[in-house]
Amino acid sequence: MSLTADDVKKIAYLARLGIDQQDIGDYAKDLSNILDLMTSMDELDTGAVQPMAHPMDQTQRLRADEVAETNQREHFQACAPQVENGLYLVPKVID
Q1: 11 is a domain residue
Q2: Number of domains the chain is built from
Q3: Residue 33 included in any domain
Q4: In whole angstroms, what is the distance from residue 95 CA to residue 89 CA?
Q5: Which of 30, 22, 27 is nearest to 10 (CA)?
Q6: Containing domain of residue 29, as a range?
Q7: Would residue 29 count as lying in a domain?
Q8: For the segment 4-58, what is each residue's pLDDT rounded down to a tens digit?
């Protein structure tokens, strides 16, 4: 698929991008190449390819679920303007 200079100008306008006039030809060529690549990739048969979550087939390292801080609830609620039954009270902002 080949994009024209007018196509690039329309795309730039819709994306609210400012493009220098002398760069429009390069953008048209680059975007056309990207669209051609996507077209050729769309034609590939990927029916036998298993989906994967990560290209390196790695697992995420997880840390142990342990409490790392002391409970400072009373300390923080002492600074709050209004607290009731352990909950912070805030003014109503939506009617």
Answers
A1: yes
A2: 1
A3: yes
A4: 16
A5: 27
A6: 5-42
A7: yes
A8: 999 999 999 999 999 999 999 999 999 999 999 999 999 999 999 888 877 887 7
